[in-house]
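User: I'm preparing a small set of examples for a lab meeting where we compare how different chains pack in three dimensions. I only have the primary sequence for this one, and I'd like the structure in token form so I can line it up with the others. Please keep the answer compact; I'll paste it straight into my notes.
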Amino acid sequence: MSPSPHGTEAEMDMSGMDMGTTSTASTSMSMSMMSMTFFTSSSTPLYSTMWTPNSPGAYAGTCIFLVLLAVIFRSLLAVKAWKERAWLDAEFNRRYVTVAGKLPKSERISQDSDSKRMVLSENGVEEDVMVVKKRGMGVRPWRITTDPVRAVMDTVIVGVGYLLMLAIMTMNVGYFMSVLGGTFLGSLALGRYVANEH
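Assistant: Understood. Below is the structure token output for the 198-residue chain.
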């Protein structure tokens, strides 16, 4: 017995309806996810569906978390700037040994074309000094005590920065304002340390 052509058409209509419904649902979901407008909602997931505030208190707690995360981000930038200055000071204060066959540093400075002999006087005491034009240090040598710490700090800073970026990309106004508020507080407290880096 051959199958009825009406049954096949009915099956095609049903499968077409399922596909149409599925594609419409997925299109509307992707459109809502791609929406680039800010919205206010107290039940926007943060980082995963497990972290979806289900009450005004939970939403406020999530916003406070984002404020603290932004303050931590600014603190990490300040600590990095402080460590970079400390490493640079240590580099300048490092003791160098004289290598056989090379002139001592004082003689090399006196023969340098950028150095000038001058007289420094203070309170009637005169002293001959050599003034050397500062040049760029170039690339500092790789150090086991400095470079791994710098790499870890950079990685943590980038990780926290991406977490903040993902919170803003939810387009939730409360999350956005929380990140801005935390950045303001962190900059207010520690911005002067980052500004002195340059």
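A couple of notes for your slides: Confidence is low (pLDDT under 50) at residues 27-31. Residues 81 and 197 are 6 Å apart (CA to CA).

User: Perfect, thanks.
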